[in-house]
């Protein structure tokens, strides 16, 4: 009896797998695809076609947008070119009009014709631009038009500036001619004034605003103000002569100025003459507030009556109508004679007189009531006479005039002071080596004193500097 063999299960499974694999390979080779794969491939192809359509549509939209942007840009560029050409044409018209005006004076027929043709041509161009704008005729080459328009406008502006420059040069030449004419006229007037002043001085008649028929009742502060102006003028004439004499004799002007007013900063070298003017005014106006510049008569005349004012006005009228030397010769013991002697001896130092003349004869003669014929002595007598007459006029007024000055370092006040120079206001504190940033403009010294006549105040003239000191007016 035969034995039954068991089935080989493992070998059966292997055969089945190989058979299935062969079937699949055969299907691939023969193109037979399962139904599920066909559906998936159709879906993918449809999606691809849809995507391609979207891309084509988007590309068309983008192309249309780009075309619109390019069209707008071209329109804007064309409009800019039109405006640039418009402005260039307007500038050309202005330039042509300027040329037309320039050719009229002095008259230039060729220049007028040329400028007129230019203006007409540019006006035609302007009309053509207007028509182009209305008909919307765009410039085919706007970039080139922009460059040409800019060049044309610059040329027109350059031509206009050239014409303006020529016009200003002509005006400058005309002003120079006027200045030369006015200078000659001014010099002629000055020479004539000097001649008249010399002639009046020789005749003993002072050039003053007061009429010979003036009465005491008609006096007012205006007369005093105007006569003060002439008095200060005579003082400055004497100072100028004295400084010139000092320069001729090699006098140390800087040292003398520093001796009169030490530790003063002068903005200019010529300003040191104000120190000498201060000294002369100080000497000549000393005791001005006292009758006859003397304290002897002040105690006897504490109460000034109308008769006293009339007496001062009479002395004013008397001295004004006479020559100074004649008055001194006829009245050698008068108060005015004593005034002249005292002021000269006080004003002109012996060392100065020795340097000027090489001797002291002039001093000795004046002490003996003799006033020699010298330029310095004549200038002094003229100054002394005007100061004395101003003094008589001050005591003739009602109320009488009083004198005042400001102390060194007093802060500047426009009410009481006026500056003889503007340098202190033009110079910043940091530019002044002798001033601190906190310094203010103040009086270095009084050059010409001020006066009060009732409610009327005549400012004193001061030389200003920058200082922190503040003093009161006295």
Automatic annotation (TrEMBL):
Residues 75-199 form the DUF641 domain. It comes from Cardamine amara subsp. amara. It comes from the Eukaryota. Residues 403-463 form the GIL1/IRKI C-terminal domain. It holds the Pfam family DUF641. This is Protein GRAVITROPIC IN THE LIGHT 1.
């Amino acid at each position: 009896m035969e034995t039954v063999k068991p089935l080989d299960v493992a070998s059966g499974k292997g055969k089945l797998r190989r058979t299935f694999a062969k079937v699949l390979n055969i299907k691939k080779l023969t193109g037979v695809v399962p139904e599920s794969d066909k559906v998936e491939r159709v879906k993918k192809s449809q999606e691809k076609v849809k995507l391609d359509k979207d891309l084509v549509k988007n590309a068309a939209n983008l192309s249309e947008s780009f075309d619109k942007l390019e069209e707008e840009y071209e329109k804007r560029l064309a409009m800019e070119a039109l405006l640039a050409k418009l402005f260039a044409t307007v500038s050309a018209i202005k330039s042509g009009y300027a040329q037309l005006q320039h050719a009229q004076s002095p008259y230039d027929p060729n220049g007028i014709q040329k400028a007129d043709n230019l203006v007409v041509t540019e006006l035609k161009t302007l009309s053509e631009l207007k028509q182009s704008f209305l008909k919307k005729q765009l410039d085919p080459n706007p970039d080139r038009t922009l460059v040409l328009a800019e060049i044309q406008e610059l040329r027109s502006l350059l031509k206009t500036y050239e014409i303006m420059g020529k016009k200003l040069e002509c005006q400058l030449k005309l002003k120079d001619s006027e200045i030369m004419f006015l200078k000659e006229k001014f010099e002629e007037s000055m020479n004539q004034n000097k001649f008249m002043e010399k002639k009046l001085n020789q005749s003993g008649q002072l050039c003053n605003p007061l009429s010979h028929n003036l009465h005491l009742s008609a006096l007012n502060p205006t007369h005093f103000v105007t006569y003060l102006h002439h008095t200060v003028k005579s003082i400055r004439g004497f100072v100028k002569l004295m400084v010139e004499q000092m320069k001729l004799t090699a006098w140390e002007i800087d040292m003398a100025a520093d001796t009169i007013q030490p530790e003063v900063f002068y903005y200019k070298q010529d300003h040191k003459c104000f120190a000498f003017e201060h000294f002369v005014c100080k000497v000549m106006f000393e005791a001005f507030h006292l009758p006859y510049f003397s304290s002897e008569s002040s105690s006897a005349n504490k109460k000034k009556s109308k008769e006293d004012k009339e007496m001062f006005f009479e002395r004013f009228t008397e001295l004004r109508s006479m020559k100074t030397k004649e008055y001194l010769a006829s009245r050698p013991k008068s108060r005015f004679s004593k005034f002249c002697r005292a002021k000269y001896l006080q004003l002109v130092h012996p060392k100065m007189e020795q340097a000027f003349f090489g001797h002291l004869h002039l001093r000795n003669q004046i002490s003996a009531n003799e006033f020699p014929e010298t330029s310095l002595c004549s200038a002094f007598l003229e100054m002394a006479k005007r100061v004395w007459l101003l003094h008589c006029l001050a005591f003739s007024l009602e109320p009488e005039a009083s004198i005042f000055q400001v102390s060194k370092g007093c802060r500047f006040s426009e009410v009481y002071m006026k500056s003889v120079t503007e340098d202190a206001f033009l110079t910043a504190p940091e530019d002044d080596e002798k001033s601190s940033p906190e310094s203010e403009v103040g009086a270095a010294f009084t050059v010409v004193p001020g006066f009060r006549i009732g409610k009327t105040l005549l400012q004193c003239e001061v030389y200003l500097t920058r200082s922190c000191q503040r003093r009161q007016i006295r």
